[in-house]
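Subject: sequence -> structure tokens, single chain

Hey, anyone have a minute? Need the predicted structure for the following. Not urgent.
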Amino acid sequence: MDSLRFFLVRRRVLFLLLLVASAVGTSRAREAQPLPPVATAVAGKAGSSSRRAPERHGLSLDFYAKSCPAVDQIVANVTAARFRDFPAAGPGVLRLLHHDCFVEGCDASILIAPTADVAGGAAASPPKAGGPFYPVKKGRKDSKVSLAGKVRGSLPRANSTVDELLRVFAAKGLDAGDLVALSGAHTVGFAHCVHVLGRIYDFRGTRRPDPLMDARLVKALRMSCPSSGGSSRVVVPFDVSTPFQFDHAYYANLQARLGLLASDQALFLDARTRPIVEELAADKARFFQAFVASMDRMGSIRIKKGKKGEVRKVCSQHLL
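Reply:
Had a minute. Here:
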């Protein structure tokens, strides 16, 4: 039985990472190159009998202590191997978890292939990029549906204002500190050119670049992202200084007007979030601490309980 559980968990992790890698990893050698250098300062079902109290489906670090005690090591081993082969898969899994939790809660509804706990565990496994490791609470149930219509309005946009960002995060029970800390995930990974074309060519209909973006970054981005006719698959790094290193350079970039997305740069421009950006830019250990705490809070958004969720045994289909 233990060997079967090992196989099932390992298969789920591999399937998840293969899907992420196929989306963002296969073109990395040709299209995900760093930009030219830019100087910077930088489970239980509720009981139906009246004679017993209903069980609480809570999250805990030892949820699988009896049924699958090696789950953390299984996930860590598989993800570490996959990240070595596809470095871009690490940021991809972080993004996947964020999108999953913000759309109908942390329930694996954003992608049917994995389970909610596997997605959370994979995101916490360090991709050899220098980021913090943290233990993930487990016990999430998986969604029975996956609807694209649920996404709209649940996720921040590349040009969201701070007001819009705060509203989206507040709707999930998160505050400004969580917003800034979780945005630090953009210290690694890439964005498609379509998300920056407006900033570098026609900011707010002016036919000029965003005046708040450093001119050197504008020039570098234009080399990779032509105004028209470019490949829709080309990507550029969120962090122009250390795109493959999980550190706090993202915040120093914002201070130097080197934020890639308008929603990133806005965090330094707004008086409500600037002090948090400055605090995390000054102290990597503080950023790691804040990031782990916010990831833990995000991982608890709208956990499914009782009959509202399921535990997928075959990851590619629902239990109906």
